[in-house]
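Supplementary Data S3. Sequence and structure tokens for construct A.
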Amino acid sequence: MPLRLRTDRLELIAATLPLIETEVTGTANLCTALDAEIETWPPPGNDESTLNWTVQRLRANPAGTGFYIWYVILLEDQCRKLVGLVAFKGPPDADGTIEAGYSIVEEFQRRGIGTEATRAIMQWAFENPVVKLITAETFPELQASIKVMERCGMKFLGLGTSEPGAIRYGVNRENFDMFMSEKRNRIEPMNL
């Protein structure tokens, strides 16, 4: 049984080696395995090399499920739609740091799905006492990506290391917990 998380609008399913191998055989098979509709796949920034990288990592570390890809399924209008991926780039390093990433199919972007899904896997990760810091990288011109990081409680940390020009954001467990507590306790004004 795959590891699953649930939010108000989403179901997240952690990729297992059999599930990723199913995706390798085609999106129709993935659709069946996830019991979800797929209109457009894969989301931006993901391709065959990303898929093969994940297969290799899960073969080397099958116990790492949850620290790689999570499929994001939107539960809407009594339908299950596969709309993107959120992920970590692997288990925590020696300092307890992991890096998060997210990619939502274009037609479902700007609806808060990336933020909602990323927060969910961050909460899951911080339940592991080894995880001390979650980071993410993007580029300064990708304002929507920066907004996702900020809406997940991350703060600017400086230059990234993944590619030239990348910038890095991050949040530790204590600050994430405070951020999420403030989000839950905030009273939003009603539109009348």
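Construct B, processed identically:
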Amino acid sequence: MTKDEADIRAIIADHAKALSAKSPDLLFAHAAPDFIAFDLAPPLLHKGAAAEAREDTEAWFATWNGPIAWEDQDLRITAGDEAAFSTSLVHMTGVKTDGAQVSLWFRSTNGFRKENGEWKVVHAHSSVPFAMDGSFRACVDLEP
């Protein structure tokens, strides 16, 4: 494993730690100023790691009872000199405040840029497939 790959794996591990601890500060610690996300929750595009994004994240954290578990499966990282990306299947689990048990698999792709010798997350994309039968139903019941 190269140093770049190890550094990116550490950023991805911090993401999981941030969810478990419900820490917006750690969640956005590695985000570039121009960070964007195509996340599971609306809207179609989330921009930046500023106070508004942190407030939205804190509101989402408040809908969970206890830690949120995040496990990357089949994590793959490709790193060049100044840009890198990662792909994985993610298993997110936990308990919502209404008692609902969450066990969701989805796809995750992240883009990284090296700034002053340090990797920053510039893009995060999470998605689930949808039914191609005309219903457009999100397929949240799939497992690897």
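The mean pLDDT is 94. The CA atoms of residues 72 and 90 lie 5 Å apart.
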